[in-house]
Amino acid sequence: MPTRKISFITNPIQRMNKSPFIWKTFIKLSQQAEKSIVVQSPYIVPTKEMEQYIDKRVKPKVQRIILTNSITSTPNAMAFSAYLGVKNRVIKAGSKLYEYQKPYSIHGKSVVYDQRLSAVGSFNLDSRSVFLNTESMVMVDSEEFAAELTGAIETKISHSMLVGNEGEPVDFNADSQKNVPPVKSALLHILSVFTRFWRHFV
Predict the structure, then answer these.
(1) Whole-prediction pTM
(2) How far, in Å, CA of 183 to CA of 201, rounded?
(3) What pLDDT digit, counting tens, does each position of 30-77 carry?
(4) Distance of CA 10 to CAs 24, 27, 79, Å?
(5) At residue 6, does pLDDT exceed 70?
(6) Is the pLDDT of residue 196 over 60?
(7) Of 23, 50, 84, 158, whose CA is between 20 and 30 Å from 127?
(8) Are 125 and 46 in contact (CB under 8 A)?
(9) What is the pairing mode between strands 5-10 and 109-113?
């Protein structure tokens, strides 16, 4: 597969709090994007500390798509309950947010910028990956690779629910939605009341 460049980035390896190198790299690339940013992450839990690095001036023509797990598919109760408390902030930031329904769950972490530069690795969109964990990502500068990766993400989007501006379902597979266990849904919403106090660690 033709490739201009492949590079490897990582957070510092010291213990505890780390300089958010990967996060700052992603923010810089997002600011440079001209057409589109496509994100796939199993967990999305933005914090105020993460948002301090974001330039609020967004290019209006840049399409931003985020794909993550739903109540149906999530395997991580703590992370998803924390996400429930901040989901509206993700939407109001100007992103189209999709929640994957089934089968299985999303575990891949990837970003595609302008259908050319791709990032694949272990980095989640949460405070643990930004400040605590020693995450790493492989950067691939290749339209062909970006097309393959975007195609895989779009396949999952076809089995996902688009979330509206107020957090309501806009477009979803009714059969998938019916499979949400009511007990699981209730417990996650109750847990979200408490996980807001320790979002930095989920």
Answers:
(1) 0.88
(2) 25
(3) 999 999 999 999 989 988 888 888 876 656 789 999 999 999 899 999
(4) 11, 15, 22
(5) yes
(6) yes
(7) 158
(8) yes
(9) unpaired
